[in-house]
Amino acid sequence: MKLKIILGLGLFIVAVTAHAEKIALVGATVINPADGKVMPNATVVINGDKIERVAMGKQDAATLGKQIGCVGKFILPGYIDTHVHFFQSGDLFTRPDGADLNSIRPYKDEVAWIKSHLDDVFARYIRCGITSVVDVGGPMWNFEVRKRASATAKAPRVAVAGPLISSVSREKLDLGDPPIVRIDSPDQTREFVRKLAEQKPDLVKIWYIVDKEHPVESFRPIARATIEESHAHKIRVAVHATELETARAAVEEGADILVHSVIDKPVDDAFVKLLKDRHIILCPTLVVFERYGRVFSHQLNLTPEEEAWGNPEVIATLDVTKIPQDKLPQRIKDALAKPEEALDRIKKTYDIALPNLKKLEDAGVTIAAGTDAGNIGTIHGPALFREFQLMKEAGLTPMQILQCATANAAKLFGGDIGSHIGKIEKANFADLVILNSNPLDDITHASDIDTVIKNGVLYPASELVPTSH
Ligand SMILES: [Zn+2]
User: Fold this and answer.
1) pLDDT at 168
2) For residue 169, what pLDDT is reported?
3) What phi, psi does 156 have (nearest 5°)?
4) Which of 145, 164, 159 is nearest to 81 (CA)?
5) How far is the CA of 206 from the centre of ligand 1 (A)?
6) How far is the CA of 454 from the centre of ligand 1 (A)?
7) C-alpha 153 – ligand 1 centre gap (Å)
8) Separation of 44 CA from ligand 1 center, angstroms?
């Protein structure tokens, strides 16, 4: 372990030195999912933190700077996960509102652990080739996370929303800086958005939760006022909406981004047209739909990438059989007693969500890849590769999946940074992934990472994160 850290530091120093000079990645196949272009025998010239040019064939060596041979490799824009939550670790104790395990690990200890492991989480994203992420809601200290990431070399670029504006509160998550804030009136939400705007959020997030006590229509005036006030401050609004009628209401009220999939019924043509006409970006977050149920029923299906690159402390907590029986919340006891029911619910969700994704993609709606990492069992970093598998199951091609995770995701990221990431082209940030095998042959190759480049700095992937085995 010690040796690894020293080695890592050595490479880091080399990398920083390399940063100042011009480098050229020579001879790889460059894949640009933005326009679907594939360039064999290409050269990518990086000057400082930016891409200077991309060209095919033999280049004048004098214009290249330091050459790095990349024959046989595949170069992509860095991946972007457009739905993560840094205030959640992905472990079993991270959502006491869903499964209260305070008696095993007090929630304040969980939050302290999360705050002390931010650099670790950042490095794991880079290990996975994820050079930008969007944090779609959390406490006010999210803004500190964004600041810390932008001051850290081995970290993704971070866009953030502040606390979630909701019809319901979640007291168990409230340690004085709640991630979810209950709002009861249009005036109250306008005041809250004005306060948020001082922090310059990249997004405002609405948690549009619908149940018997909270029908779609009762929260609609608050959603409308939130969107109006945010737009008045030139801030886009993302809405959590998992039912067709909730999602439709959110878009009709002016939402810019829908997060999660519609999972209660097949989307209809009018809905698809509405999303197209309004230029809505939708982030499906498929992986999160299986992970709560699978963790609680002891049926967790972590991928090899998650096992290798996820935080081992987080993963170790996910075995619910290690918790004394008398301390298990009822929800987990029930799931453990009937795992087949948990798996059946997941299957039913995907039976609707996957065809919905295919229909929206085929219609030309902008889909941005995202995982909801940080929720119980959804592992920060490598969860994106499970998301890719599920997008493939929905029927998306490797190029479509890569487009969702790069150029489309950059649109969701937004702002000036968003317009300089997600594509391999002149003047964009040099955030790249170098793969050993062709992801267009098989999307599983998207995790066959040789090197990650963030801000023009090269990181050999195997040196980025100590693996758990
Ligand atoms: Zn989320």
Assistant:
1) 85
2) 85
3) -75, 160
4) 159
5) 11
6) 25
7) 26
8) 35
Q: Report the separation in Å between the CA atom of 371 and the middle of ligand 1, taken as the mean of its atom positions.
A: 8
Domains annotated for the chain, with CATH where assigned, are 2-77+424-463 (2.30.40.10), 79-418 (3.20.20.140)
Q: What is the Å distance from ligand 1's center to 161 Cα?
A: 11
User: Ligand 1 center to residue 372 CA distance, Å?
Assistant: 5
**What is the distance in A from the centroid of ligand 1 to the CA of 373?**
8
- Give residue 136 CA to ligand 1 midpoint distance, Å: 6
Q: How far is the CA of 162 from the centre of ligand 1 (A)?
A: 12
Determine the distance separating the centroid of ligand 1 and the alpha carbon of 85, expressed in angstroms: 6
* Cα 205 to ligand 1 centroid, rounded to whole Å: 10
Mean pLDDT, rounded, of the chain: 94
**pLDDT tens digits along 296-350:** 999 999 999 999 999 999 999 999 999 999 999 999 999 999 999 999 999 999 9
Q: Ligand 1 centre and the CA of 138: distance in Å?
A: 9
Distance (Å, whole) CA 91 – CA 462: 24
Q: Tens digit of pLDDT for each residue in 401-434?
A: 999 999 999 999 999 999 999 999 999 999 999 9
Q: Give the Å distance between the CA of 186 and the centre of ligand 1.
A: 23
Confidence of residue 211 (pLDDT cuts 50, 70, 90): confident
User: How far away, in angstroms, is 183 Cα from ligand 1 center?
Assistant: 18
Assign 3-class secondary structure to the chain: CHHHHHHHHHHHHHHHHHHHCEEEEEEEEEEECCCCEEEEEEEEEEECCEEEEEEECCCCHHHCCEEEECCCCEEEECEEEEEECCCCCCCCCCCCCCCCCCCCCCHHHHHHHHHHCHHHHHHHHHHCCEEEEEECCCCCCHHHHHHHHHCCCCCCEEEEECCEEECCCCHHHCCCCCCEEECCCHHHHHHHHHHHHCCCCCEEEEECCCECCECHHHHHHHHHHHHHHHHHCCCEEEEECCCHHHHHHHHHCCCCEEECCCCCCCCCHHHHHHHHHCCCEEECCCCHHHHHHHHHCCCCCCCHHHHHHCCHHHHHCCCHHHCCHHHCCHHHHHHHHCHHHHHHHHHHHHHHHHHHHHHHHHHCCEECCCCCECECCCCCCCHHHHHHHHHHHCCCCHHHHHHHHCHHHHHHHCHHHHCCCCCCCCCCECCEEEECCCCCCCHHHHHCEEEEEECCEEEEHHHCCCCCC
Taking a 5 Å cut-off on Cβ, the residues next to ion ligand 1 are 372
Distance between Cα 164 and ligand 1 center (Å): 10
Q: How far is CA 450 from CA 74, 143, 426, in A?
A: 9, 32, 23
